[in-house]
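>> received
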Amino acid sequence: MYYIGHAGHATLKDVNCSDASSISFSIYIPDFDVWVNSSKESSWSLNKVSNATCAPTFDQDTGLVMYSNIDVSICAPGNPAITPDNSTFEYEFVISVDAEADSAIAPVTFAYDHRYNVKCFYNRELENITASFKPLHSLTDNNSSKSK
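>> returned
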């Protein structure tokens, strides 16, 4: 099993970038079960593409968000990025999530945008494939002014 990430944080698991017509990966999110709307497909966006083939599936028990058989011609428009010498190219998948922690379960002072960036790199000269994963979060709201 292939992992990119740190314990206790979002982690890329089971990545398979070997076929551009069928890329698959899973993201483990340790606090997935406390997000409001976390398992609604409409809360998740892959490269801002509205197509059912680009939607994830979920395993609420394990905290896995799974993208399977992604066809880059549909789910990664404008990709791949290719170097000028044509030796390497990459596919980028930007995942945006419209979900926040449930204040009834875990009180939240700040709301965050949840974004994850997954890239598949192909190097023709070295004949290898690598992947990268970057969780990105930005502050969207401060609930500290709410009275109780």
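>> The longest helix spans residues 72-75.
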